[in-house]
Amino acid sequence: MTPTVPAPDARPRAVIFDLDGVMVDSEPLHIEAWKVLFARHGISVADEEHEHGIGMLDADWIRYIFARRGQQADPEWWQDAKRRIYRSILARNVRPFPGVAELVARLRGEFRLAVASSSWRENILTVVEAMGLRQCFDVFTGKEDVERHKPDPQAYQLTAAALGVSPAACTVIEDSLLGVRAAKAAGARCVAVTNSLPAERLAEADLVVASLDDAEPIVRFARDAAT
């Protein structure tokens, strides 16, 4: 008698990557772009102010910076000026974090994959194309695709819907507290990687890892996502 073979698990599951600070070491490039722009206008910004901006929208961070100085600014103007500088820097300096390509390769055959970021989609595509990974992802959600930004869950809710997967069946990989909160508010499980902040600042995540280089615990965690 031929033994009964269990049916494959066809439940849809997904892994959603943040971009900056998760896939690519771009936070220093954002800071470099801001420094170039601020230098042109004679503005000095402290390192702790730059750190405060990790995970924030550029427009929100500009409001924060100028409010601390008792000044007002046009956030859209500053955001657009920085965007042009950053794009030229990023195109020359895509620096993937260790293990990202290998983790994507491990996940690709088993999960639907997406990138959801507060960066413009043009930046997302620049990174994944430079890494040779564009074909591995099913959905890209950028800044222009959402009305409400992290820690609001909209980016992850929209991405899960585009993937055809319940948020509860999604594992999000983040590097910022705002991103962790967005993922959790969406109903997803969250892995935080300490590329940008220390582990104690990311304790609200379901799993905290030091690097994506050790894929096995991340893959096991993603497999446990509910449907």
Describe the structure.
With 227 residues, the chain is an alpha/beta fold. It folds into 2 domains: 14-24 and 96-223, 3-Layer(aba) Sandwich (Rossmann fold); 27-92, Orthogonal Bundle (DNA polymerase, domain 1), CATH 1.10.150. The chain has helices at residues 27-40, 47-52, 58-68, 75-92, 100-108, 121-130, 154-163, 177-186, 215-223, and strands spanning 14-17, 112-116, 139-141, 170-174, 189-193, 207-209. The protein has a 6-stranded parallel β-sheet with strand order 3-2-1-4-5-6, sandwiched between helices. Helix 3 (58-68) crosses helix 4 (75-92). The longest helix has 18 residues, at 75-92.
Read across the widest sheet, the strand sequence of neighbours is 3-2-1-4-5-6
Q: What is the ordering of alpha helices and beta strands? A: EHHHHHEHEHEHEEH
What separation lies between the terminal Cα atoms? 34 Å
Briefly note the structural class of the backbone.
Answer: alpha/beta
The dominant shape is globular
CATH topology of the largest domain: Rossmann fold
Radius of gyration (Å): 18 Å
Counting structural domains, the number is 2
Residue stretches low in confidence (pLDDT < 50, at least 5 long) are 1-9
Biggest beta-sheet profile: 6 strands, parallel
The CATH architecture designation of the largest domain is 3-Layer(aba) Sandwich
β-strand number? 6
CATH class of the largest domain: Alpha Beta
How much helix is in the residues? 40-55%
Can you say what the CATH homologous superfamily of the largest domain is?
HAD superfamily/HAD-like
